């Protein structure tokens, strides 16, 4: 299964990249993907814990939702401003 992950703002800084394409060996939920990404380091894990996510540009509230092949996951940290 192929999934593209796009990081924005603080998530991009913590990940050290803007976009990556992952080859997953099995079907994962969004929560499992976040856990896998969090294992890369404490800074990224801290940011991911506060993020919201879009799958193919649709907000995801249920992190137990299974991912689909060729899906794009956007990682959005909280934004401030007005």
Task: Kindly report the spatial arrangement of strands forming the biggest sheet.
Answer: 2-1-5-3-4
CATH topology: Ubiquitin-like (UB roll)
Uncertain residue segments? none
Mean pLDDT across residues: 94
- How many domains would you count in the coordinates? 1
Tell me how many strands there are: 5
Alpha plus pi helix count: 3
Report the CATH architecture.
Answer: Roll
CATH class: Alpha Beta
- Give me the strand/helix succession: EHEHHEEE
Shape: globular
Terminus-to-terminus distance: 39 Å
The Rg value, from CA coordinates, equals 12 Å
GO molecular function, one term: nucleotide binding
GO cellular component, one term: molybdopterin adenylyltransferase complex
Keywords: Nucleotide-binding
Protein name: Molybdopterin synthase sulfur carrier subunit
Please explain how this structure is put together.
The chain has 82 residues and is an alpha+beta fold. It has one domain: Roll (Ubiquitin-like (UB roll)), CATH 3.10.20.30. Helices cover 27% and strands 29% of the residues. The protein is built from three helices and five strands; from the N terminus they run βαβααβββ. The protein has a five-stranded mixed sheet with strand order 2-1-5-3-4. The longest helix has 9 residues. The N and C termini lie far apart (39 Å). InterPro entries: Beta-grasp_dom_sf (IPR012675), MOCS2A (IPR044672), Mopterin_synth/thiamin_S_b (IPR016155), ThiS/MoaD-like (IPR003749). Pfam families: ThiS.
